[in-house]
Write a structure and sequence with these properties.
It is a single chain. The chain is of the alpha/beta class. It has 17 helices and 27 strands. It has a nine-stranded parallel beta sheet, covered by helices on one side. The longest helix is centred in the middle third of the chain and has 29 residues. It starts with 7 loop residues before the first strand and ends with a strand. Bound molecules: beta-D-galactopyranose. Beta-D-galactopyranose binds next to loops.
Length: about 650
């Protein structure tokens, strides 16, 4: 973080919940824990504007002053995340409306429609006040616009949204004929004669128009980005400090296309929580961290929120085992975070998140949890010199929110084929082989990668498909998995056989999808197995690597490899079981000349390198239950020990070595 040396440690401080005596105790404890960055006023609106137009900054002034006197820097919220009850009572028209036409009541948070002019007017007036008051405050080193924009209210179906959606469509398509063409409205008698006839895709009796659904996602993402810009514009009139908002690069939220948001952030910040509903929550953490780094263009980024222990919003909220919080934290650092912040400082005693963990737990500071916080803080101090370095990866994985929206639409070949699960499967194979992947946008410059992995890239533009083709033709290597290249950006099927946009690159053509029923598996002639998906595929220029041994298409190619120009492109036409996918990726990695820095395994040991400025650091994170050894030479930063040739990493531990030539 600019203005903060080393790897910074921070937290959300919802001081409004506590009396001033606690604030005084808190800053002392924050100092003890080495906290350098504190987010305040994230949910402050009803406290600082208790009545319309009446501002009271007494408490915020005191807390900011207190933090400043203790040398703690501030990440200042604009406070607009949740409107106060006086606003929703006077203006119920700002409340969000769901796809089924029902209105959501206040009483939770984020109860506002992103397109509401009334909400916008009141919220911008608040931002103006906050920015004017603290815009040049020396302790404010970062501005935090709203909070997790779109976490709950991204898709709003009220009349204000309908009007904004129409304006957005008019800008995009200019003529109603162009829209009709893009949405394929000749089907089911959906032809529009006038913009005023178009609504947001509210729930209907049958499946809705998929192109309209994708455009509504795009619109909704743009609408909130527009709101971010509006807040940021007010801030920039009063401050030169960096401005950002916290992204939600995580498995259960998919409404914002962060590729379009990222260029507008002064710092890329993400919130990440372990999701125990997923098969491998730690692998998902690594993926999210790598994707966040992709959003940052490879530069260091900040983890704006994570939990010290359990969250409160999953069906079963698992506490973190001893050492886990440190391991999770250092996984983020290994993958490029230079700043680690937590939600929240002190566990609430009231409110919907009273059972969410915090740095200071309900039981106080004579606790394992608090000692782990102190331990993390001490460890981060030893890693300060890593700040500013960047992660080195030879593999890129293409990720697209648009593909997520279109692949997971309502009417599709199989409801069990889910975009993110396929992305995770491909990512996990690479990770388990010990390689590091950059997660990048489909249009990214691929020239510096040896291997590009393209999982389930259902929607792809002509230009991005051509970019991948040119990369391979120029000597690159690619692995493309099924359900890729199927539709263009208007969600229109590419004719002539699947996988549409990638047919020539892959040297194959598929005539028909043959998805499998849940629980059904097919065997492959080469010994592996697969589930979910098969397709009637034939090769044109590709070589068949493996075929189905049974299932609906015995003898049909399941895995192919095509020489394309100077390079090679693999196609995986089914959902391989993890070991088979890993074997295939292993071959592709070796063929592409990637030398993984980690040993192959089950993913419980992660090895990542950060380097820059003539320095190089190896992070070895042992999530497993057995000690491991890793070949390294240099100085271990967390213990200070010299390492000559062999680094021992106890079970559950993390070691970071500043590498020296052996
Ligand atoms: C985030 C949010 C925080 C808190 C946290 C709990 O979504 O920004 O305010 O609710 O989750 O995990």
């Amino acid at each position: 973080m600019r203005g903060l040396p080393g790897i910074s440690l921070g937290c959300d401080y919802n001081f409004e919940q506590w009396p001033p005596e606690v604030w005084a105790e808190d800053v002392v404890l924050m100092r003890e824990a080495g906290i350098d960055l504190v987010a305040v006023n994230i949910f402050g609106w009803s406290s600082i504007e208790p009545r319309p137009g009446e501002y009271d900054f007494t408490a915020l002034d005191r807390v900011i002053g207190l933090l400043h006197r203790h040398g703690i820097r501030i990440n200042l919220g604009t406070g607009t995340s949740s409107p106060p009850p006086w606003l929703t009572t006077r203006h119920p028209e700002i409340l969000p409306v769901m796809a089924d036409g029902t209105t959501r009541s206040p009483g939770g948070r984020q109860a506002w429609c992103p397109s509401s002019p009334v909400f916008r007017r009141h919220a911008l007036a608040l931002v103006e006040q906050v920015a004017r008051r603290y815009g040049s405050h020396p302790a404010v080193v970062l501005w935090h616009v709203s909070n997790e924009l779109g976490c709950h209210n991204a898709l709003c179906y009220d009349e204000a949204s309908a009007a904004a959606f129409r304006r957005w469509l008019e800008q995009r398509y200019v003529s109603i004929e162009a829209l009709n063409k893009a949405w394929g409205t000749a089907f089911w008698s959906q032809r529009y004669d006038d913009w005023s006839e178009i609504s947001p895709p509210r729930l209907a009796l049958s499946a809705r128009n998929p192109a309209q659904l994708v455009d509504f996602q795009r619109f909704s993402s743009d609408e909130l980005l527009g709101w971010y810009r509006a807040e940021a514009a007010v801030l920039r009139r009063h401050t030169t400090a960096p401005v950002t908002t916290n992204f939600m690069v995580t498995a259960h939220i998919r409404n914002l296309d962060y590729w379009s948001w990222a260029p507008e952030m002064d710092v890329i910040a993400n919130d990440h929580y372990l999701d125990h509903r997923l098969g491998d929550p730690v692998a998902e953490l690594s993926f999210a961290a790598d994707l966040t780094r992709g959003l940052a263009g490879g530069a260091p980024w900040m983890l704006m929120e994570q939990s010290a222990g359990a969250v409160n919003w999953q069906p079963h909220n698992l506490a973190k085992l001893p050492g886990q919080m440190l391991r999770n934290s250092l996984t983020h650092v290994a993958r490029g975070a230079d700043s680690l912040c937590f939600f929240q400082w002190r566990a609430s005693v009231q409110g919907a998140e009273k059972f969410h963990s915090a740095l200071v737990p309900h039981a106080g500071t004579d606790t394992v949890a608090w000692r782990e916080v102190l331990d993390l803080s001490a460890t981060l101090t030893t890693l300060d010199e890593v700040a500013g370095t960047t992660v080195r990866a030879d593999v890129a994985l293409l990720f697209s929110w648009e593909s997520w929206w279109s692949a997971d639409t309502e009417a599709r070949p199989s409801q069990d084929v889910r975009y993110l699960a396929q992305v995770h499967a491909a990512y996990n194979a690479i990770r388990e082989l010990g390689a590091t992947a950059d997660v990048v946008a489909p249009g990214a410059d691929l020239s510096r990668y040896r291997l590009v992995v393209v999982p389930c890239l259902h929607m792809v533009s002509d230009a991005d498909a051509a970019g991948l083709g040119a990369y391979v033709a120029g000597g690159g290597h690619a692995v493309v998995t099924f359900y890729s290249g199927i539709v263009d950006r208007s969600d229109r099927v590419r004719l002539g056989g699947y996988p549409g946009a990638f047919r020539d690159l892959l040297g194959v053509v598929a005539e028909e999808f043959f998805p499998l029923l849940p629980g059904d598996r097919v065997r492959l002639a080469g010994g592996g197995s697969a589930e979910l998906w098969t397709e009637r595929l034939r090769t044109t220029t590709a070589k068949t690597i493996d075929t189905y041994a049974d299932g609906p298409l015995p003898g049909v190619p399941a895995i192919t490899r095509n020489t394309h120009g100077e390079g090679a492109a693999w196609y995986v036409a089914t959902a391989l079981d993890p070991p088979s996918l890993r074997d295939l990726m292993d071959v592709a990695l070796h063929e592409a000349g990637v030398r993984p820095i980690g040993a192959p395994g089950d993913g419980s040991v992660e090895v990542v390198r950060r380097a820059g400025g003539g320095r190089s650091y190896i992070f070895v994170i042992n999530h497993g239950t057995q000690p491991i050894e890793y070949a390294a030479t240099g100085r271990e930063l967390t213990t200070g020990a010299a390492v000559s040739g062999l680094l021992r990493v106890p079970a559950g531990a993390v070691r970071v070595v500043r590498e020296e030539p052996s």
